[in-house]
Structures are given as C-alpha cells and as structure tokens.
Design a protein that fits this description.
Ribose 5-phosphate Isomerase B, Chain: A; five-stranded parallel beta sheet; globular; 7 helices; alpha/beta
C-alpha cells in the first residue's frame, strides 16, 4: 500500500490542528515531531511537557490531548507519546468518543484510522525512532475513516458501552 510523501496534499486538508503531548520519555521525540508537523504545514498545538522533567506523569499530558480531541472527535486528531505508548493510550481511552490506537506498524496505523476510526495515535518513544514516527504520522493524517455501515455500527456500539 503506497504511502504519501511528506508535505504532500493531505497536510492542507487538515483544517483543525493536530494536538500533541508527551511525558519525559517522549519529550525529545515530541519536540522533533512538532517541528516536522510544522514543516509539512500542519497546524499543531503542543500540550507539553514543555521542559524535560523526569518526574512528570503521562496522564497529565494525555488528558489535555483527549479533552481537545473530544471537542470535535470526528474532525480533531491527536498524538500522545510515552515510553511504551500503552500508558498514554490507556489514559486517553478513558474519555468518551476517544479512540486511540498504539502505533505498531504502518499497516496497523492505517487500519486503525480507517476501520476503527482512531482519532488519537499513541507512539512508543522507547521503541520507535523519529523516522518511523514520521511515517506513522503521515499515514495517520492521510487516512480517513471508512463510512461503511459496519464501521459506523461498531463505533456506535463503542460509544454506548457504559462506564463500569
């Protein structure tokens, strides 16, 4: 499956900013990705951390991204980064209408965006370098949710699961 090149047409199709945040383990990768997003003319809102703090906690930053995406969950997109990507994905998936997937490979990122309607991408800074993260983001931003009835039905079922 072909992947669009950086800076191609999809960046201008993103009308809303991409919201991004990371804890101390994802701090350096997040800063590089913010620059990359700006280079490809994608508006980005950085929710921190803004300084390297080894004692910070990923839920504080993940929550900010989830709340921003939650304002318009069918249009807004977010990126959350921590060492494993698991912690931030757990944190953001606690919010209604948030669908976050952990980036494991390019095909899975595309599948999650198209079939599962992910609106937040979790990246593991301990297992993913900058070049791979850029590829994941290119795919995440250029893929669009499929509107087939089965995908919409599944999304509605997810939204109707009560908080336990």
């Amino acid at each position: 499956m072909p992947r669009p090149k950086a800076g191609c047409f999809y960046a201008i199709l993103i009308r809303m900013p991409v919201f991004i945040a990371a804890d101390h383990r994802g701090f350096d990768l997040k800063n590089k990705l913010v620059e990359y997003l700006q280079e490809i003319n994608t508006r980005v809102e950085d929710f921190g951390n803004y300084q390297l703090d080894p004692l910070d906690d990923f839920p504080d930053f993940a929550q900010k991204v989830a709340q921003a995406v939650q304002q318009n969950p069918t249009e807004n997109l977010g990126i959350v980064i921590c060492g494993s990507a698991i912690g931030v994905s757990i944190a953001v998936n606690r919010f209604k209408q948030i669908r976050c997937g952990v980036a494991l490979n390019e095909e899975q990122v595309q599948h999650g965006r198209e079939n599962d309607h992910t609106n937040i991408l979790a990246i593991a800074s301990d297992y993913c370098d900058f070049e791979v993260a850029k590829k994941y983001i290119d795919i995440f931003l250029s893929s669009h949710p499929k509107m087939d009835e089965k995908y919409l039905r599944r999304g509605h079922k997810l939204d109707s699961i009560p908080t336990q």
